[in-house]
Amino acid sequence: MSTHAPTRAHVRGHWPACSGARRPRARAGTPRPRRPVIQRVWPKQRRLLQRRGGRAAPESPPPPPARRHPRAGAGAAGAAATEPGGRSRCGARSRWRLEPRGAGAAGSQLGQSKDYALPNASWSQDMLDLYNRFLDMTKDGLWKRIPSYNNILDHIPGKLTYEKRKDTRLFLRSIDAEGAGFEYVMFLNTSEKRVVCLFQPGSYLEGHPGFAHGGSIATIIDSTIGSCAISVAGKVMTANLSIDYVNPVPLGSVVLVDSKADKVEGRKVFLSCKMQSVDGNTLHAEATALFIQLDATKAQKQQASCQ
Amino acid sequence: QVRRGVQGLFRTLQCVKRSGGLLTVCLSRSIQAAGSQLGQSKDYALPNASWSQDMLDLYNRFLDMTKDGLWKRIPSYNNILDHIPGKLTYEKRKDTRLFLRSIDAEGAGFEYVMFLNTSEKRVVCLFQPGSYLEGHPGFAHGGSIATIIDSTIGSCAISVAGKVMTANLSIDYVNPVPLGSVVLVDSKADKVEGRKVFLSCKMQSVDGNTLHAEATGKDVLRVVGGCWALGWELLGRCQNFPISGA
C-alpha cells in the first residue's frame, strides 16, 4: 500500500493528475466570489429595451461592421449609418418592422434613394416653421411636396430609359456636408401653376463675404422655375434666364422662392419668379425665364451624340 | 521650409523626361506644395489629374500667352477672403467656402482657370464641368453655367471697377454643355457709366464651333459698390471708387 509509488489521486482534478483547485473555495459563511459576467446585449435586444422605455439599454460590444444589403442603395447605407442607434444595417431584413421615422428612412430601407427635401438638424427655426406651415397646406390636396434626390434620374419616372450612372449627382445636392450646401424643399400647386421653394443657403455657397454667391441664387431660381415649367409642359430646357439681384442673401437666412408660369405659347413657356425673405419685407431677387419644351426624339439624339 | 519647397521642385524637375501634360502637372504640384509649405492657401487654378487633354492643351496655350505680360493667370482659392488683398480686415471664417470651390472631390465640381487681359478689359475662363454639376442627364446644370458666367463676368468687372456686386444677369442658353467637356468663357467689359458697369460674355466650345451660352451686353450690369464691410444698405452713402484699371 504505502510502498506504492505515491499517487496523486487524492489531488482533485482531471487526468493527468493536476490540481484542479483553481477556483477559490468558499469559506464557511462567505459567499463564493462570482466572476463578473459580461452581459451581451445584441442589437435586437437593445432595440426592444429602448422601445419599451425601460432602464437604459446596457452597453454592448460594438456590432460587426455594417454590410450593405444588395438591395439597399448608396443612400440607404448612408442613412442607416447616420441614424442614431443604428436601427437597421440591412434593407430587407428589418423591413417588417417599419417605423414612421420619416419617408426618407422608410424609402431607404426599401432600397430607394434618400429624399433630401425633409427637415434635418441644420435647418433653422424659421425654416422649420415655414416648412410646417406649408406641410399643413398639403393636407387639403392643393399643395404637394416635391421629393428631392441626389441623382437626377430618381426624379424622372421612367428611370429605366437611361442606365443609372453612379458617379454623377444633381448639382443642388452635390455638397455632402449637412447644412453646408443647398437646403431646400419645393411645394407645387398645380392649379395655380406655381412652385414655392423654401431655401436656406449654407456656408459653402459663399460669394461675397457673408452672403450667398450670385450663381447659387441663380441655381436655386433656375431649379424652382424649372420644376414649375416641368409641371406645366413636361420635358423642358432653359432657353433664357434673366435675374435682377436686388438685395444680397446672407448665408444661413431663409428665403422664399415663388415662381409661376405666366403663359405658354406653343413650345415656349414664360415664367417669372420672386425671391423674398420670410417676413416678406425684403425682396432679394426677381427673375424671368423662358423654357422650351423638348422634342422627345431630339432629346434622345442629343443624349446619343454626347455618349 | 523654403528649403523643403526647393527640394520638392528639384525632385519634380527630375521627371522632365515625361510627356508634356504630366510635366505641367508635376510642376504645378510642386508650385502648390511650395506654396502650402510657406503657409499660404492652396491655389486651385492649376492643372490636376482630373483635367482632360483638351483642358491641358488650352491651359498651356494661355500660359504661353502670359509670358508676354499681356495676359495674367488669376489664382483661385477656396475661401473668398484669400482673394481680397487686405485680408486682415475680416477675421478669417474657417467654415465658409467659395461656392465654386465647395466640392472637395477632385474633378467632380468646377474645374476652371481664369486669365485676365487688362488692356482689352477681358477675362477668359477655361471651364470643365465635373460629374457633380449634373442637371439634365449627362449635361451641366443651368445654374452651374450661370455660376461660372457670373464669376467670370465678376472678375472682369472687379478688374475694371474695383469692388462690385451683380445687379443683373441675363443668360441665353443656346446649347447644353456635356459633363466633362471643356468650354471657353470669354467676358469683356463693354462700357462704364458712372457706377454701372456693362459687360457681356460668350461661352463656346474649344473648337469654337458650338456656342453654348451668351450673356447679353445690355442687360448685364454691375454697380460699383463702396465698402463691403458696411453692407449693402449703406452703398448709397459710400463714395464712388475711381474707375481705373487693375
TrEMBL record, chain A:
**Pfam families cross-referenced by the UniProt entry:** 4HBT
Reaction(s) catalysed (UniProt annotation): decanoyl-CoA + H2O = decanoate + CoA + H(+); (5Z,8Z,11Z,14Z)-eicosatetraenoyl-CoA + H2O = (5Z,8Z,11Z,14Z)-eicosatetraenoate + CoA + H(+); (9Z)-octadecenoyl-CoA + H2O = (9Z)-octadecenoate + CoA + H(+); hexadecanoyl-CoA + H2O = hexadecanoate + CoA + H(+)
Start and end residues of each Thioesterase domain: 210-282
Regions of compositional bias (Basic residues) in chain numbering: 22-54
Annotated membrane topology is:
Peripheral membrane protein
Region annotation (Disordered) maps to: 1-92
Subcellular localization, as worded in the UniProt entry:
Cell projection, Ruffle membrane; Cytoplasm; Mitochondrion inner membrane; Mitochondrion intermembrane space
Compositionally biased, Low complexity: which spans? 72-87
Q: Does the keyword Mitochondrion apply?
A: yes
Against InterPro entries, the record matches this protein to:
HotDog_dom_sf, THEM4/THEM5_acyl-CoA_thioest, Thioestr_dom
Name a single GO cellular component. Answer: mitochondrial inner membrane
EC primary class: hydrolase
Entry-linked SUPFAM superfamilies:
Thioesterase/thiol ester dehydrase-isomerase
Q: Which family does it belong to?
A: Belongs to the THEM4/THEM5 thioesterase family.
Protein name, UniProt field: Acyl-coenzyme A thioesterase THEM4
Please tell me the species this chain comes from.
Apteryx owenii
Lineage summary? Eukaryota, Metazoa, Chordata, Craniata, Vertebrata
UniProtKB/TrEMBL annotation, chain B:
E.C. number? 3.1.2.2
Q: How does it sit in the membrane?
A: Peripheral membrane protein
- Source domain of life: Eukaryota
Keywords in alphabetical order: Apoptosis, Cell membrane, Cell projection, Cytoplasm, Fatty acid metabolism, Hydrolase, Lipid metabolism, Membrane, Mitochondrion, Mitochondrion inner membrane, Transit peptide
Q: Which region is the signal sequence?
A: none
Q: Quick one: where is this thing mainly located?
A: membrane
Q: Name one GO molecular function term.
A: hydrolase activity
- Name under which the protein is recorded: Acyl-coenzyme A thioesterase THEM4
Organism of derivation: Apteryx owenii
Lineage of the organism: Eukaryota, Metazoa, Chordata, Craniata, Vertebrata
